[in-house]
Amino acid sequence: MAKSKYEYVRQFESATDHHLLLDSYIVVRVDGQGFHRFAKEHNFLKPNDKRCLDLMNRSALHVMKSFYPNIIMSYGQSDEYSFVLRRMAHLYNRRHNKIISLITSTFTAGFLFYWNDYFCDQKNPNLIAKKPLKLTQTLKYPPTFDGRCILYPNESTLMDYLRWRQVDCHINNLYNTTFHALTGEYTHYEVNDDDNKFIVTFPYSETKLSKLSTNEATKRLSHTSSSDKNEILFTDFDLNYNNELEQFRKGTIITLNIEQIDRLLSDQKSINYYIRKKSLQSKNSLVEKPDDQQFELLNVDIIGENFWKKYGPLLKLL
Ligand code: DGT
Ligand code: MG
Ligand code: MG
Ligand code: MG
Ligand code: MG
Question: What's 296's domain CATH number?
Fold first, then answer.
């Protein structure tokens, strides 16, 4: 086909679309834009709206399935999710612009697509609230996410990156839990042993405890340590922070389950070949899109060594 005289402008693209360094871990982190406002406008429960966190997990799973087998681990908390690409991932020739924009828009599309499954009460039978929740069924405006791409040169910096996000989760969640207990807006979740449903209560909204204003609560918490906050929760509110859901305290790790990891490890050669070739026509059953059951959602500590020992094979695969 004849080229038009305007074709030359394509050359300008190369200046801004670089290829990410080979043989290094690519982490893409997406983060809700202005979610402070989004949470308020949609009456999110405080400090944690499990519906939103579950929806974030669902959206992340959608990303992992879409980009399988390039992403086999991710970590999410609050309004953010980090996706770890395998160091030899070769999707889109590791083009920075493609990777960052596709992962971010795939996540955002998932968040919108699955919204009703979590925020429409009739469809989310796992949550039982002790008083009617304010209607949040309908989106008031389209939520958006920003995305960034970071390269980590080795296993230990990658592990420290994930630890950093989990420490952030812990610090913010302890702060927010204490803050909203002080203001009387705290929501408590308990798992019903009989049917594993979550019972939602609002223990301080109708107590006689004097509720602090936002300013007063901020002042009360300034210069307090973690143990001060634990103490406030325990003595003033009879609340043991360790009994909060692990999902809130630790965030969520999504990985392939151990069998699936072993399966991939046993055929590293062909899977690596596939990743390099990016051939979607491959007949190899290993690269068939996995179903939801092949992934695991974990709310566990990733700061200590235990997780990394148990999931050693995962690191080998990364
Ligand atoms: P950004 O990321 O710079 O555009 O600004 P934000 O407002 O998204 O701030 P960010 O990402 O630092 O913090 C997340 C905000 O989202 C924070 O204000 C708390 C809110 N948020 C996230 N999840 C929940 C939730 O489950 N319940 C409530 N009430 N708020 C939440
Ligand atoms: Mg941000
Ligand atoms: Mg945000
Ligand atoms: Mg955030
Ligand atoms: Mg096109």
Answer: 3.30.70.3000
- Residue-wise pLDDT tens digits, 24-76: 999 999 999 999 999 999 999 999 999 999 999 999 999 999 999 899 899 99
ipTM exceeding cut-off 0.85 for this assembly: yes
Residue 52 Cβ < 6 Å to ligand 1: yes
pLDDT digits (tens, 9 = 90+) for 119-159: 886 667 788 888 877 766 789 999 999 999 999 999 999 99
94 lines ligand 1 (CB under 6 A): no
β-pair partners for 74: 83, 254
pLDDT reading at 2 higher than 80: no
Q: Is 100 a domain residue?
A: yes
Q: Domain containing 92: what range?
A: 22-166+251-317
Residues forming beta bridges with residue 149, ordered by sequence position? 28
How many independent structural domains does the chain possess?
1
Domain assignment present for 198: no
Question: Does 290 map to a domain?
Answer: yes
Ligand nearest to the CA of 136: 1
Ligand 1 atom with the shortest distance to the CA of 80: 11
Does 116 fall in a domain? Answer: yes
Whether 32 is in the pocket of ligand 1, judged by its Cβ within 6 Å, is yes
Phi, psi of 165 (to 5 degrees): -65, -35
| Residues, Cβ < 5 Å to ion ligand 3 | 31-32, 35, 79
Residue nearest to atom 25 of ligand 1 (CA): 48
Q: Is the CB of 169 inside a 6 Å radius of any atom of ligand 1?
A: no
Sign of CA dihedral 180, 183, 184, 185: negative
User: Quick check: CB of 43 below 6 Å from ligand 1?
Assistant: no
Over 49-79, what HEC string results?
A: CHHHHHHHHHHHHHHHHHCCCCEEEEEEECC
